[in-house]
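# step 3/5: fold
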Amino acid sequence: MKNSIVCFGILIIGSVFPTLHAQDTVITTDTIQNGGVLQVNDDSILYISHSSNNPTLTLTNGANVSFQGATVVGGRNYNESGILQIQNGSVFSNNGSGFNELETNNPIYSGEAYIGLYSGSVGSVLVSGNGSKWTNSQTLIVGNEGQGTLTITDGGTVESQTGRINYGGGSGNSQGVVIVSGQNSTWTNMGFLEIGQYGSGYMTVSDGGRVTSLTSIIGTTGMSSSVTVSGSGSRWDNSSILNIGWVGVGELIIENGGRVTSLDGFIGRVNLTESTVTVSGSDSTWDVNRNLILGGSSLEAETNGTGALEIGLGGSVNVTGATRIHGGGVIHLEEGGTLNTGHFDPTNGVFNFNGGTLSVNGTYTGDLFVPVSGEFSGSSMVSGNLTNAGLLSPGNSPGITNVTGDYLHENTATLLMEIGGLNPGTGHDQLSIDGTLEIEGGTLQIAQWDSFMPVFGNTFALFTFSNLIGSFDDIDAFELSGGREWDFSNLYTDGTITVIPEPSTMVMLFVFLGASVLVLRGRKG
């Protein structure tokens, strides 16, 4: 059995090793700080590490550590291990400035923390429970040359200036793992977050956990790395760029209600990368507040990178700006998935529209085929031909879809037009076709919007076209009130429909007018 130290008050530990800074603190056996204060010298390194003991430093019941130095959990030397546990409202604060070099062999600066520093070393940190907190004013590295694990659960919080999950690489066996799980469990990075520098890095955010960062990279170089965000309330928020695959291979999985946000998104940004993003499961979302780019370094610049995005059942990707698929990029939109974007240019890459909803509020470049299980919507211009075998719903209740080429309406297709006013685009939907409108059957559905009820004589221009071929099998229009009905007689000539009186109303009107004439004649007589 290992020896252990239990302290309920102030514990001061100081050990001097020939190869260490004179003030460094080394914990080589199990130590429990039960409340109170663990004092560590400023301008020093706190090591929790040993070659055989696998020592654990446990801070519990409101214990406190605060110093200006650095922390190493596992890896004072090669092939050593160590464990740090911060629980039950305890706080560990490392507030170094980052300018003071404390170790020269593997440069360690004040404010930094390492979990698994040297090759062969293993380090583990657990931050658990509401009020439990680990703060590092500079970089937190999980798995430097060794193997490191950081687990944040049950409301624990970790803060760092920047974060790296696997950084050094070592002999190729290095690995970093971060798990953030449970409501109010958070890891906050003020700067960048890097997952997989030379070895493999893995991060899981689940069950309401949250990670925030500025710019993030999954798969910087070397072997593959991945991030999974899973479960309702689970989030990874990036206030700037999110790169999935730089020179390494990156994978991002958003599932079961998880959510990721970023300013820009890149999948397979640099040469030789093969990276993927999968968004699936009810309410699973990736919000990109500017542009999404696959297989390139900008909207214009193509690289040799390979990037794939799959949007499955219940998944949603929302791009405020433009979506660009370069030559090595591919997007799979599956049944039940949703892609909302501004401009969309897939011409150099591959867009597999297998189902789901594509909403474009801008220009779609190229020809577009809407499958039987697919829906196309938005206020957009299709710069090419549009073929619809599924559902076309112009605008965003309402709006206009422009097609610079031809529109083909197949016999399985539905065209949904909403009417909520008299003006195209603002009051009702319109499909504007520069070329030929060809209708092979299918359905025209006319729906009421915003409780608008047309009156006698109202005319709505649903289509504009240069040529029309064919007709719909079925026209399903909402019911008018007050003795009014739809007149479709001009639909296939100029694309308009009009509100007219019902026949019975016309008969009653004629009867009324005839009776009125007889009364007038009687009065004259």
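# step 4/5: annotate
The two ends are 127 Å apart (CA to CA).
# step 5/5: archive (pending)
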